[in-house]
Amino acid sequence: MVRPYAVKWLKGKRKRGAASGAAAAEDAEEEHDEQVEVVEEQEVEEKKRRGEELAAAAAASVPDDRRGTEEGPLEALPGLPIVATQDRRPKQGVIFILERASLRVGRVGKKEHILSADDDANYLKNKGENPAEFRPDIVHQAMLAILDSPLNKAGRLQALYVKTDDGELIDVKPYVRLPRTFKRFCGLMYQLKTQKSIHATGKREKLFRMIKNPVTKHLPVNSRKIGFSYSSEKLVRLQDYIPAVGDDVTLVFVVGAMAHGKIDSDYTDDLISVSNYPLSAACCISRICNVLEQRWNIL
Ligand SMILES: C[S@@+](CC[C@H](N)C(=O)[O-])C[C@H]1O[C@@H](n2cnc3c(N)ncnc32)[C@H](O)[C@@H]1O
């Protein structure tokens, strides 16, 4: 079993030293460590000046209680990191609901953890369960597709709810930075399932929390709930469908985070298919995000 997320993160932070922005720099390196640029001295100076201007503008747009300190930016908060670069000014936004997410806890041997088809197939078969139904990896990929999207970074994700296949409902704050690796993701989800909420150490705000069902209770009154299923007979081009809905409603996208079966469409206003092919949840979400990013000119 993995250590609790906050503990691991702090340990990593201590090792790296308390240099400001260390976490953010590491992330950037992760993504771009192959790209080494040689820049003329003059250009460096110019970039530095522009960077300082942008940083000052960004700091001014962030509410006081969310700003970083001189010691370090927001990513340096102890506990769960959050995405500091996100623009959080209110704009027309969208909501995602992930349906039938498999995040079930089981005790295999002496240890409890989130059960998965890959690691616990024998245990699940012995219990008479179908391993194919235990796919936390689909939930991880789907959440990354939503939270890492430019759409979210531009502040257009209003809320993310995850409905688990054992009847729980999770509220995920859009500015949380999800663990990149599956193992750490499962460690975090285990913490959430057992403790019912997760917040940045020393902060009251809960970044993940279990909330009461039904999910519809948490949606705005003027929301349009659009369910996604390959098996729907209503095949649409998302580029045409979304503008036709209009700007006066909050779009709620309901996507399945399971391997097989259909989403619960009892509460959706529509059930659409967006491709002639069965897509993964992450691919389906990327399609939705791409259309919205083009519509709102998010590059
Ligand atoms: C791995 S699929 C689940 C497979 C399931 N047989 C289905 O089609 O609903 C995960 C989710 O992606 C979405 N999805 C996959 N292909 C799609 C398509 N062609 N059109 C709309 N949504 C799709 C659905 O929400 C689905 O629940």
From TrEMBL:
Q: Which UniProt keywords apply?
A: Methyltransferase, Nucleus, Ribosome biogenesis, RNA-binding, rRNA processing, rRNA-binding, S-adenosyl-L-methionine, Transferase
What are the recorded Gene Ontology BP terms?
Answer: rRNA base methylation
Where does the protein end up?
A: Nucleus, Nucleolus
Chain segments carrying region Disordered: 12-75
Gene3D superfamilies reported for this sequence = 3.40.1280.10
Q: What is its main location?
A: nucleus
Q: What is any one of the record's Gene Ontology cellular component terms?
A: small-subunit processome
Pfam families the UniProt entry points to? EMG1
Q: Which GO terms describe its molecular function?
A: rRNA (pseudouridine) methyltransferase activity; rRNA binding
Q: Does the keyword Phosphoprotein apply?
A: no
Q: Which domain of life is it from?
A: Eukaryota
What InterPro entries does its record include? Alpha/beta_knot_MTases, Rbsml_bgen_MeTrfase_EMG1/NEP1, tRNA_m1G_MTases_N
Q: Which family does it belong to?
A: Belongs to the class IV-like SAM-binding methyltransferase superfamily. RNA methyltransferase NEP1 family.
What name appears for this protein in its UniProt entry? Answer: Ribosomal RNA small subunit methyltransferase NEP1
Q: What is the lineage of its organism?
A: Eukaryota, Viridiplantae, Streptophyta, Embryophyta, Tracheophyta
